[in-house]
Model the fold of this input.
Amino acid sequence: MGMLSFLLVFCCFHVTFSFTDGSIANAEFEFGPKPQDMKGTVVTGGPHAIPGWEISGFIEYLKSGQKQGDMLLVVPNGAYAVRLGNGASIKQKIKVVKGMYYSITFMVARTCAQEEKLNVSVAPDWVVLPMQTLYSGNGWDAYAWSFQADYSLVDMAFHHPGKEEDPACGPIIDSIALKALYPPRPTNKNVLKNGGFEEGPYVFPNTTSGVLIPPNIVDLSDHSPLPGWIVESLKAVKYIDSDHFSVPLGKGAVELIGGKESAIAQVARTIPGKTYTLSFAVGDAGNSCEGSLSVEAYVGKESVKVPYESKGKGGFKRATLKFVAVSTRTRILFLSTFYTMRSDDFASLCGPVIDDVTLISLRKP
Ligand SMILES: *[C@@H]1O[C@H](CO)[C@@H](O)[C@H](O)[C@H]1NC(C)=O
Ligand SMILES: *[C@@H]1O[C@H](CO)[C@@H](O)[C@H](O)[C@H]1NC(C)=O
Done:
């Protein structure tokens, strides 16, 4: 179905965009304004100048290879991207299934030194993402956010609330993708949900940046782009997949890129007095994150620190933590002890990978 809707969009974009569940029209901005609707890079042709989108405010339509100040713009997917000036926004209606959970992944680049913010919304939900930390060296980051569809046709918008003096400041957006999420359930083999991180946000096939999952503003683990887990920190964690990274088990894993400011947690149902074993893999993503890495796991008053010597080429070891539950709800939390930078560019944050997290109760304590 994805392929079909893609073809439809290609053949008929000048007439109308077809609505297929979760598909986004002109998602990579490859269809641009007509020449008479632009002045230089600035879109002047009114709210419908960019096919598929409704735009407002100062919007620039940018081509890969173009000069941005003293830098050359490189666009990760396709050849075009849009920049949102102060107060500018782009939006479109998307068809979704009412009641379902979706994650939305988008590529964004920060342009100026000031802190930039982006308000991402799917009515009535919204989030304002701060982009003061540059996570990847090339300036582009993929972010994921998630929402539950309240209606079957919803407004998706990206709004730059900034008030910078330079109108050329403001985030550049390249591509946007939606993916339905299927919140996993605990099984009799694992009290934790989504312990292997197999359920996660959409990952763009041609990008090697992973997907940043910003801190959960509210404690809604159902609602997370990483179902079951809460990003409980100031900084994002990175979702990585086995197509682009070394992953201990299965397809997905999490890289803790923000040191102690980058933590994920899950609250498990436990039986007080019972003994449990928490087991997990600690490794590296094969992304030149070299040196002494370390993951700390916390369960109630118990904790374990797992050192991992990384050569940056992939690999992992296993660790366990045994504890007696004292409550019906037990919080499991992982964080990285150190800040680390990749040895190949010294500008990208990196860190240890965790995967295959299981929590089982022991029959004979
Ligand atoms: C973010 O955008 C939504 C939708 O346009 C809006 O309702 C909300 O008030 C905005 N939030 C902020 C803080 O600007
Ligand atoms: C990925 O990159 C290849 C080679 O550059 C290109 O042919 C392909 O169309 C790209 N795919 C997407 C989804 O951008």
